[in-house]
Amino acid sequence: MYGGMRYKLLSIRRKRNWIGTLLAASVITTSAQEADTAETPDNTAKANANSSTKSSAKTAASSTADDTNQLAPVKITSEKSKHFAPASIETGPYKGLDALDVPATVNVVTRDVMDAQGDTGLYDALRNVAGVTRLQLNGLAYDNLAIRGIALDNRSSYYIDGILPIDNNVWMPMEDKEQVEVLKGASALYYGFTVPAGVVNMVMKRAGAEPVTSVTALADSNGSYGVAVDLSRHFGQDNQFGIRVNAMDEHVETPIEGDRGYRKFVSAALDWKVNSKLKLQYDFEHVESSIVEQAGTVPLAAKNGVITLPAIPDPSKLLVSNAYPTRSSADTQLLRADYALSENWNLDFSIGQSITRRDRWAWVFQKYNVATGAGSLQASEQNGQMYENKNVRLETTGVFRTGPIGHTLTAGVMQNWLSQPDFTTYFYTASQNLYDPVSITKLTASGTPKQFYAQHIRNSGVYLFDQVDLTSRLQFIAGVRRSEYMSSQLGTPSQDINRTSPSGSLSYHLTPNTSVYASYVEALESAGSAPSTAANANQILPAAVSRQEEVGIRTRVADRALVSLALFNLRQPSADTNADNVYVMDGNARFRGIEFSVQGDVARDISLTASTVYLDAKQLDSSDSTLVGKTPENTPHVTASLFAEYRVPVLAGLSHPPSTFDQ
User: What is d(CA 545, CA 571) in angstroms, rounded to the nearest whole number?
Assistant: First the structure.
């Protein structure tokens, strides 16, 4: 969403359980004589929450009609259950676990939350998740995100269906996602080479028990308009085939005058239950977007330790030319096979590929006078960018017992290839005024074109997890991973790193609905990549070891809301831009804090998701002594958010969703 209020002008949704309700309404609005002979279809009772009450009402209506030739009052109700609180997790080693049993902080944004918030992009969905913040960019073209103060890597921190890494340098549609999950902390034990902040997992919609036909007209207060389609069916003699198709086409108007474009996507999720043992799944998603990126403002050099900031400019004014949009596309496909070896053992195989292509115009406003606003625009033309992830994984999971102790064992091997070919950046300049922008009609070539040399990364690993049920309340999870990381790029030293990393967690159910946990994770993870403003822009830094401890408590209230409290401490090697404008590893940083969240129904007609994080981040050591003890950039001490939905009881389907966010 681009800052405007979003509306669904027309939404036509057809599900089997609604048909009976519509038929019942038409029957009751007929004449009294027709009502005497009409019978409510069987599926009317199935569509309503209390079929026995409705049967009694219908009998009373028929009896009254015999005596008075008029229908008695009949109340038609239809109730859609809301699920703000997640039931299970689909990320990493915790896939399929009850949310109460996960010994880590995992935030889940369910489909109902996304619908209530009107989410159309990734940050839309995550803006009320504890500790998730937006970095650097305004989100017009894509979202740069951080978790607990640590920036995510756009090439390795985002996943589809908990398996395939995808590139985040493009708009991420939410209309075809069932839920979005944020696994916080060291996650490389399962996924391999990722940043220690965590990962974002997007779960695709799949065909459910009921068919879906939905056509929605979209609009927002900025003037955007479009249409979205959602179709779902099961078919075949035994309903062994399933298909879920989503598509959207939208003309986009941003809150910035003259900045407009488009975004569109089509996706399909296919299922085939071959027999009682074998199930196949295939996912495909194609995304396109075009939008002009607003210029970022570069801070002036510090004088006597002080950076003078300009006055806040008018955010509705476009600083750049709208003739140079950033155009992006992405194609993702994932094939999975799940085979039941026996009643207690499964074998899962997956293979996938994700390719993002982009022709980008990036802009910065710099060298300005803070009093007058006069300065210079720099445009960077980067055509032919491509990011490719290829992934293959083989995994087996089984349950067994050693005496009175139960085990759920997961063992797997995976390999991921990340590649990015050569491209060249060309630079241009133009005069501009921050406070009184003028139309940019001409760009002047400036400086020497900059060559980016192809990168190739291979990330492979073998892992083992054992979930040990020591008692009915006490559970221990032990894990180990052997990782290999290899990278090559012209002009950069090649890397070939191997490491064995352990993990362990302990969880205890105080009551059936309350659990406490403690965990330790150590992993070989990504230190991220150099920002586009650095001399070594986009270069991936060497792998580094991070360590995290976490303790927490989680409770499910009245089976309707999930409340979590966690204390965490993460240590990782840090990176910074040195005096030569080269982004390098330098020192270590510590991120320590406390996080609280509540998600679910707090009353019959009120659902909410609320969170707050207090973060104490500190640079422990550095070659630059002036940085030691300081707070790393882009790490707010406190973030808090609240989203609530109130459903008006007398008007089915009507709700008012206020939302606040504070950082």
Answer: 9
